TrEMBL record:
Highest taxon in the source lineage: Bacteria
EC number(s) stated in the UniProt entry for this protein: 1.-.-.-
Alphabetical list of SUPFAM superfamilies matching this protein: FMN-dependent nitroreductase-like (SSF55469)
Pfam family name, one: Nitroreductase
PANTHER family assigned to the protein according to its UniProt record, in alphabetical order: NAD(P)H NITROREDUCTASE YDJA-RELATED (PTHR43821)
UniProt xrefs under CDD domains: YdjA-like
Domain Nitroreductase: from-to ranges: 16-163
Keywords assigned: Flavoprotein, FMN, NAD, NADP, Oxidoreductase
A molecular-function term among this protein's GO annotations: oxidoreductase activity
Similarity comment: Belongs to the nitroreductase family.
Name of the protein: Putative NAD(P)H nitroreductase
Cofactor(s) the protein requires to work: FMN
């Protein structure tokens, strides 16, 4: 490992510790090219046999109306989530192809979750905030149908993406040593 790799490793630790969930964004949308660049970094997540079981749906600008329509179709027009997808500048859905074999499903779920974390960390490293949302409507048949999410696919998350307007203070974490069992 050379000096620049060591410096990068220190930077990764900092990004991991400093990342925050952002719930209030500026209205300026992150350019699609930047999100594509971040996804190109995120796809380096470990995934067994390079199955790459993911695909992405990105809603920005007027495209947010399609996502709002999907939410409305599932939950009705009068709900806070329609407003959230219309006021957040950009929303990304991460969709995983589901394998019927449990072991492969588990591996793909872990890989896709790692991809989401990679995306969020890469974004934070570029001063872009994220908020990983998992809500019941993501499972709803009307929501899925509106967005052409087919049987055999799972939405792992809806990720709000944007430039932070408010960055919350860090919350304490339990030290790993408090949850670690060592066998020597």
């Amino acid at each position: 490992m050379n000096e620049s790799q060591i410096a990068s490793s220190v930077h990764v630790k900092d990004v991991i510790r400093e990342r925050r969930t952002i719930k209030k964004f500026k209205q300026e949308a992150v350019p699609v090219e930047k999100i594509t660049e971040l996804l190109d970094t995120a796809v380096w997540a470990p995934n067994h046999k390079l199955r790459e079981p993911w695909r992405f749906l990105l809603f920005t600008g007027e495209g947010r109306q399609k996502l709002a329509e999907a939410v409305s179709n599932e939950m009705g027009e009068d709900n806070k989530f329609v407003n959230a997808v219309l006021t957040n500048p950009t929303t990304l859905l991460v969709v995983m192809k589901e394998d019927p074999r449990q072991a492969i499903w588990d591996e793909d779920f872990a890989a896709t979750s790692a991809l989401i974390q990679n995306f969020m960390l890469a974004a934070w490293g570029e001063e872009i905030g994220t908020f990983w949302v998992t809500k019941p409507f993501l499972y709803g048949p009307k929501f899925r149908e509106t967005l052409n999410i087919v049987p055999g696919e799972k939405i792992l998350g809806m990720i709000y993406v944007g430039y932070p307007d408010v960055v919350p203070k860090p919350q304490e974490r339990t030290a790993a040593a408090d949850k670690l069992t060592v066998f020597e």
